[in-house]
Structures are given as structure tokens and as C-alpha cells.
Amino acid sequence: MRRYLQVTALIVAILASATASLVMIRFSCYATVCPEDYFSFEARLHVVIYYCFLSLTLCLLALRLYSPAFRSFTNIRLLAGVRLVGKRFTLGETFMAIWILVITLGPTIYWFPTHWDFWGRRLDGLGWISAKIQLTITGITGHYADVLLGLLIIPVSRNSLVGQAFSVHRGTLLFAHRIIAYLFSIAVAAHGITYIVYATDGSSEGDKAKEEALATGNPTMTLSESKQGSSWFVQTTYTGIAAFLPISAILVASLQYIRRQHYNLFYYTHVICGIIIFVASCIHASTDFYLLLPGLLLWIGDWGRRVFFGETNGLRRKTVATLENAGGSWIRISLPAKGTPQQMMEKPVPTSEPLLYYHLNAPAVSKFQIHAFTAAVTASTSHGPRFLIQRASGKPQMRLDKEWTWKLGALVPNIQDSRDLEVRLEGPYPINDTGYMKASHILCIVGGTGVTGALSLARWWLDARPANSRFALIWTVRTRDSLEITEWTDPVDVATTNRSLEIRSHISSENGRLDTALILRDAFEAHNVMAADARGDGWVYGAGPDALVKVTEQSCIEVRKDLKRSRKSGHQGTCALKDLSWYIEA
Predict the structure, then answer these.
(1) Which of 47, 228, 432, 508 has the fewest C-beta atoms under 10 angstroms from its C-beta?
(2) What is the pTM of this model?
(3) Regions in the chain scoring below 50 on pLDDT
(4) From the candidate CATH numbers 3.20.170.30, 3.40.390.10, 2.40.30.10, 1.10.1060.10, the one assigned to the domain spanning 318-429
């Protein structure tokens, strides 16, 4: 039911935006440039084609969701052994990139002759061919930027309706956002550079005819028109600069070093500069607003849910949690139960699915910093979600003392110390993958703090206990000190009496790096799990350091290729799987 509501919300957002855009385009425009005033037919065509593209995209995503054959086809990995921009591409992601390029560059078919003729009528008689070429390129690249700005915020948000409604991996959504952002930056740069080249051309100085043909600040108007009308409509250059500067700031803040070492700088730069870009772009050109509208609706809806809804009614409300020093550099944050006192006295009943992540703010440590954590223990009728946070390491102590995790730990300096802590909680957010629900074999390969999601998955498996299923969890850590937490020791104890449950640690300082390929093949051996004729589906969860998740993903790819080869040959050997899928926390 929830999925149908999400799909309906997407359809309504697109239809409402398309209707509003086509209605507004018929009335007076208050942007500094109004393409519909000069290109009435082409501007309407531009809007219609864009919304048709969005609608067709939803249809393709729905086909991928409901057609296993189409989904398997899109999940084929091209050049599986090669990583480009830190990623291995699937066929679906490759098609998505081409799809974005088509809708971006496609309007050239009607915008090029339109602009060429428009500027030709103004400039051919003056023999000013350079300005004609420059302004034509400026106009076309501006329309590229229209489309890309509209697409830019649709894939990414905490409550991504696209991801939730069509089970699109968060990594794929971020990949789409990056492609669109890079193309948008290129289009904006080309748009601005060609305009600057035109504006700094000194050939018109002293030539009254050329000066009259193109108004300063807005060349779509003549000099006489600009003097007769409001000065508002010659601010186009300045609104363009106002949009370009925050784009540059976001690009700098998105550099890998800044994103990883100063995440909150990256995050707030995106939020603040993003708002400036939206406002400046919509003032700059009316078509920016028409195409940005569906993304804006989804963005506003996302922020509404973040602020007013969720486990603790959103960021607007503080909740008193319990902060504990769990030992072994671990900090535990436990939230209170939402259930009634009577429910809290009864046997705990899970109220949510596993692998839920939240964004947490602790005003006592920092009023602005907000960090994402996967709950190690999901909420039930007797308790709220529980988080395990590990202090940062690998830096000089003076720098570590300034880290958010160390400031948090300083509030409970000794083992078993605890205190109340006011927090603001945003979420929960589920992963867009439910393969674990149908899998007969679940394997978690995690490192460091990546264990929290695996622990929540283990608890879910123990509660749900699908028939004839098996669960294995391998946690790789540097030293044994990290293992001394009850969230880990409790399921380890349960595993000693449950033959279908395997939970073990790998100490990298003693045993070297984890061989993920060997782990996968051993975990899915038929003699190790069940009779070979009772083959099921495998599902792998990987989380932790980049190096670990990359080799885990590569091992999954290799095992799946072996499975396909075995099926084709008719001999599956000792493998207990029919198929294998995985979810990697990137």
C-alpha cells in the first residue's frame, strides 16, 4: 500500500507541475528573461517534452520494478572488473546516463534553428556574425541548463520518492545526481563563458546600430526597449552571476577530501547554496522555474517529512536519549520506546524493519552537526532504536579532541558511565532493497561500524526466522577490544545453540585481510548449509571501509558469474544457490 501511495505522489507531482507550468506560461512573466515572449511555440514544446520525459522515466522504472527479467537485464555489469569514477557500471546505469544526455541535448533540434534565426534577424544586417554565434550558443546551453537543473534534485533527498517507490539503490540515485550535476556545471560554464566572450567584445563600441540592436545586461531586448521598460529586465547578467557563484562553491565543497573530512561543510554548503541557486535561476529565466517545479515540490515535501515526521516527530522536537560509554571506544545512544507502559511490560515486538538509518543531532555537542547512523537495534514496543558510535581514530590527539565523536564521548568518559542527552532525530530511512526478506541464505560481510546494520539484520532474522534459511555474519576488526559490546556478544551466544546461525569475527591485526571470495564460496556451499537439491537465493550485505566493500562487491560479481555459467552448463556443483544478489553500503 505504501508503495502505491509513493507512486501516486510522484505522478501527482509531475502532473500538477506540468499543468501549473503550462498555465503560467500563458501569463505575464516576471523573470529577467522570458523565452516564451520570444519563442512562444518552442518554449511550450520545451516544457511538454521535459514532462513527457519524466513520465516515460517513471514508466521505465515501474517496468524495472515489476519485471524480474527486465530488472536482471538492467543489473548486468558492463566491464565488471573495471571501475570508472570509483564505480562499476550496470547496464541500467549506463542506459540512465545515455537517457540523461538524450533529454539534455535533444532540444538542440528545435532550439538551434530558432536561436539562429532569432539572432540572425537582429544581427545579419550588421555583419556581426561573431555575436550571432556566441548568443546562439549562449541560448542553447542555457536551455541545457534548464533541463539539468530540473533533473538535479529529483533523485536525491532523504525521503527519495523515486528510490522508495521503485526500489532504486541509494548509490544509483547519487550516481544519477553526480552525472546531472557535472553536466549542469559544464552547461552553466559554457553558457556563462560564451556570454562573457560576447559581452567583452569591443567591436560594438561607437557603433550606434550595434549598440541599439542588443541591450546591455539582456541582449534579447534592444537598447530602446530596455530604456522604455523596467530596469528589472536588464539584470539578467547579475542574476546569472548570482546563480553561478554558489554552483562553484558546491563544486569545491564536493571534492572527495572535503566531503569525507568535513561532511557538515559539504552538507550545509549544498543546502544553503542550493536554495540560492534555485532562487537566482528562477529569477534569471522563467523556463528554469517551469522545469524545476516537480523537483521543488519533492524537495519541499522531503523537508516537511524531515522536520515534522519520523520516529520522534522530526527535527523540530528534541528527545531525551540515554548516552552510555559501552567500552572499547564505543558509545551507545538509546532512545525511549514509543509504546504504552503496558506494551513495554510485554514481550518486545519489533515495530520496524532492519537496516534503518537515521540522522542524529546532539545540540550539547554541536547545534549544527548532523550525522547518519544505522540502528544496531531497531525500535520495538519496549524500546526505541539503539545506536553504536565509535570514536574516530587515525589522527593526532589534538585533532581528535575536536571530532564530534570524541566530544560526545567526553560526556561519558568512563566505561559504563551514562547520562541523559537531548537529541534531534531524523528518520528512519529504509534501504531500497528487500532481497533479504526472500533469501534463503543471508551473508553479512562488514567491517568497523558497518556491523550495526548487520546486527539489526541478525535480530530481524532471529525474530522472523524464515523457514529453511541460514544467516551468517562475519565482522572484521583491527583488535579484539571492539568486540566487547552486548549487541555483539548476545547474538554470538545465540549462535552457539543455533545451527542455522553463524556469527564470528575476523581480527585483521592477527589474521591479515579478510578473503571475501573464500568467505562467499564457503558460506554458500551445499554441504555446508543444506541438501544440494534445495537450492535457494542468496543475499549479501556489505558495509564498512571502502576497501572492504569494494572487494566484497567484486567477489559477489565473480560468484554470480560462476552461478550463471553453472546454470548454462547444467551442473551447479556444490553451490546451494539458484541466484545471488547483494546490497553494498557505499
Answers:
(1) 228
(2) 0.90
(3) 81, 342-347, 527-533
(4) 2.40.30.10
